[in-house]
Design goal:
Elements (H helix, E strand, L loop, with lengths): L9 E5 L4 H12 L3 E8 L17 H14 L3 E5 L1 H17 L6 H20 L4 E3 L4 E5 L5 E5 L16 H4 L2 E2 L9 H10 L21 H8 L6 E4 L5 E5 L26 E6 L4 E5 L6 E11 L8 E6 L6 E9 L2 E10 L7 E6 L2 E13 L7
Parallel strand pairs: 1-2, 1-4, 2-3, 4-7, 8-11
Antiparallel strand pairs: 5-6, 8-9, 10-11, 12-15, 12-17, 13-14, 13-16, 14-15, 16-17
Helix pairs in contact: 1-2, 1-6, 3-4
Length: 376
C-alpha cells in the first residue's frame, strides 16, 4: 500500500516557495487530506529577491509560498527556524570543511530541520504527517512497516538526501510527487493548470545559504581569512601554495593554480586535504580510485541490517549506483566496492539500496585507495 491510499490525514505541507512543494501541497489537498501550508524561515536576514536560481528563504520565496497556499485554499503560516538551521546545518557545514571533510548540507537539513525540528513541532500540534516536494516514495508493507523507495522517475529521484530518515520519521512523511512518471516540464504545466504562479519559477540549486555560489569565499569569511599553505605531490614535493585548505574537495581538478604541468603532462587532482598542517596533496586521476571505505553515524530507514550483505550504493546526490558489499561492525559501516570508484571524500554520505528500497545512510570517515591502499 502506498501513501496515496491512506485515510485522510492532517498534513503539514512544507512550502519553500518553489513549484515542487506547491504542487505536492496541492496534490495532498486534492487527495482529501486536511492540509496546512508552512514556510520555513531559515535565514536570520532574508533578502528581498533571489539571484536567478540561487539562494532560498528570501522574502520573495515566503510570498510565493503564501500565494500558492491561497490558490490551493489552505491555511498558511511562517515558522522561524533560522537559529536551529544556523546551528544544525550552517555551523555543521563550516566545521566539516574546517576538518577537511566534504559535507552535504541538504541531507543534514532533511535530517535536522524538515524531519526533526519541523516534524516534532507538527506532531506536537496534532498533525499526522509532513508533506514535501521531494521526489521519493514511501511504501507501507503488509506488516505495517514503512519503507523509503526511489522515485518512479530516476532522473528526478531525491532519495539520496532522504536516506537519513529513520522508521519513525518515515511513518510521518508524505512525498506526493514520488510516484509521478512525469518530466519537470509536466510538473510545471500542472502548476500552471492549477493557477500556481510559481509554475515558471527557476529551481534553486547549489547551497541555499550561499546565494552567490562562492563557497570558498563564504568559508574564508567564516574561518577567519585565508591561511596560506602548501600544495604537494604524492612524494611530498612542494608544487605551489593555496589560500586555505578548506577551499578544496577530493577529486577537484580546476582551480589548483599549480603553475606548471606534471612530468607526464596529465592533469592533477586533489587526493588529500590535511587541515592539521594546512596542506593539499594532488596527483594523477588513477590515484583517486577507491576500493573500500568506512562510514560512521549510520541511520537506517527501518531495521538495521545484520551480518554482511550485498547492496548498491550511491555516493553523491546526482551520482549513479555501484555494487558493494557492506557490513555493520560495532557501529561502523564497512563498505567494499565491486569496482573502484572515484571522487569519494570523507564527510560525504554513502547511501545503501536494496533494489529501489533505501536501506540507510552513513557518513564516510575513511577511504582505501587501490594503489596506495591507505586511508584518506
Amino acid at each position: 500500500m502506498t501513501e496515496t491510499s491512506q485515510r485522510p490525514l492532517r498534513v503539514l505541507a512544507a512550502m519553500s516557495g518553489g513549484v515542487d512543494s506547491a504542487v505536492a501541497a496541492a496534490r495532498a489537498a486534492e487527495a482529501g487530506h486536511d492540509v496546512t501550508g508552512v514556510h520555513l524561515a531559515l535565514s536570520a536576514n532574508p533578502q528581498s529577491f533571489r539571484t536567478g536560481a540561487r539562494g532560498c528563504c528570501t522574502i520573495e520565496d515566503s510570498r510565493d509560498a503564501r500565494r500558492a497556499a491561497d490558490v490551493i485554499g489552505i491555511p498558511f503560516y511562517v515558522w522561524d527556524l533560522a537559529e536551529r538551521f544556523r546551528e544544525d546545518v550552517v555551523e555543521d557545514f563550516v566545521a566539516e570543511y574546517e576538518a577537511g571533510r566534504t559535507p552535504n548540507p541538504c541531507l543534514r537539513c532533511n535530517e535536522k530541520i524538515k524531519f526533526a525540528a519541523l516534524l516534532d513541532k507538527a506532531l506536537a500540534l496534532g498533525f499526522d504527517a509532513v508533506c514535501t516536494g521531494h521526489y521519493a516514495t514511501v511504501v507501507t508493507g503488509a506488516d505495517g512497516n514503512r519503507e523509503l523507495h526511489r522515485a518512479s522517475d530516476m532522473a528526478k529521484d531525491q532519495s539520496y538526501v532522504l536516506g537519513v530518515l529513520d522508521e519513525r520519521q518515515l511513518a510521518h512523511a508524505m512525498f506526493p510527487l514520488g510516484d509521478t512518471l512525469t518530466t519537470k516540464d509536466e510538473i510545471r504545466a500542472e502548476a500552471e493548470r492549477r493557477g500556481l504562479a510559481v509554475a515558471k519559477k527557476p529551481d534553486s540549486h547549489d547551497i541555499c545559504f550561499i546565494a552567490d555560489g562562492d563557497t570558498q569565499g563564504f568559508l574564508a569569511n567564516r574561518l577567519g581569512g585565508r591561511a596560506e599553505g602548501d600544495i604537494l605531490d604524492e612524494t611530498g614535493a612542494k608544487l605551489g601554495t593555496h589560500e586555505g585548505a578548506f577551499g578544496f574537495t577530493i577529486g577537484q581538478r580546476k582551480g589548483l593554480r599549480i603553475g606548471h604541468p606534471a612530468p607526464d603532462g596529465k592533469p592533477r587532482y586533489v587526493l588529500d586535504i590535511s587541515p592539521v598542517n594546512n596542506t593539499v596533496t594532488v596527483g594523477p586521476v588513477e590515484a583517486l580510485d577507491v576500493t573500500a571505505l568506512t562510514a560512521i553515524k549510520p541511520r537506517w530507514c527501518g531495521t538495521p541490517p545484520s551480518g554482511p550483505g550485498t547492496y548498491t550504493a550511491q555516493l553523491r546526490a546526482h551520482g549513479g549506483e555501484t555494487e558493494v558489499s557492506a557490513e555493520l561492525t560495532d557501529g561502523t559501516l564497512h563498505v567494499t566496492f565491486t569496482e573502484p570508484v572515484r571522487g569519494v571524500a570523507p564527510g560525504q554520505a554513502v547511501v545503501l539500496y536494496d533494489g529501489t528500497r533505501v536501506v540507510g545512510s552513513a557518513t564516510i570517515a575513511t577511504t582505501v585507495r587501490r594503489e596506495t591502499a591507505s586511508a584518506g
